[in-house]
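Progress note, project year one: complex with zinc ion.
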Amino acid sequence: MLPLIGIDIGGTWTRVALVHDRTIVREVRHPTPKHTDAFLAALFAVIADLRAERTDVAAVGVSVTGPVSPFTGTLFAPPNNSGPLAGLDLGDRLRAETGLPVAVDRDTNCALIAEAAIGGAAGHANAIFATFSTGVGASVLLNGALLRGRDGTAGELGHMVQSFDGPLCGCGRRGCVEAFASGTAIAAASGFPDGAAAAHAAEAGDPKAQAAFALARESMASACADWVNAFNPEVIVIGGSVAQHNPEWVEHAQARVSDAFAPARDNVPVVLSTLGDHVSLLGAAILAESALS
Ligand SMILES: [Zn+2]
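Model obtained:
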């Protein structure tokens, strides 16, 4: 297979990789500029550098924080911030610049594509990937296809409400999974600036921080049981820094899954992602393969 370019656009960093046979050959990262012109200029420059190195790059795949249309490659306004790149027709701009086939998808969809190809969901036609990090994102593979919906934005499981009068979520509603189980939520509930500080406080015995972590763990576990009832998956793969730092939460979620309906609750492993923080970047390159067909 010819080499592909994978791009992972996060709120803080943009990473661009040359990928050959589903292995990252070279990776470049730069801070994500907050204005469209600077953002595109930086991205195009890195792509040109990589293509100077490998002139036979066949396609480009892009992972980007949602919401985004996988059909058109246009970014929608995100609910969590002002969204300086909102409205950008990223797919078209990349096609015009590179002359290559381009595919764009939400970061969690790309992560699930990677998990289904070479990770914890390999061999499964029904799987859920969820990331518990600064926020909570998720995607659903149903009967071998990503759950899309009309606009391609389906699967935002982190914004399903667990408590109507719960803490305020970044999306504007109250009591979402993200408002309990994200690093941001844990920090806010324990009165610390970030999740890492809250984790240190919890380890040192701070009761408020410990309560916030316990609530976050329960939120994740309860969400997994809901997802089993709603989507009947064969496996749930959990990624993100909050989950990676609390691997025992996965066992707790596994136990809660047994509260779901039979037979959906039977034989549904809840596992930690083993693809690390490259999962969406690798998934973007694998997504590029689909742009070739
Ligand atoms: Zn929300």
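The CA atoms of residues 49 and 99 lie 15 Å apart.
The mean pLDDT is 95.
No further modelling is planned for this target in the current period.
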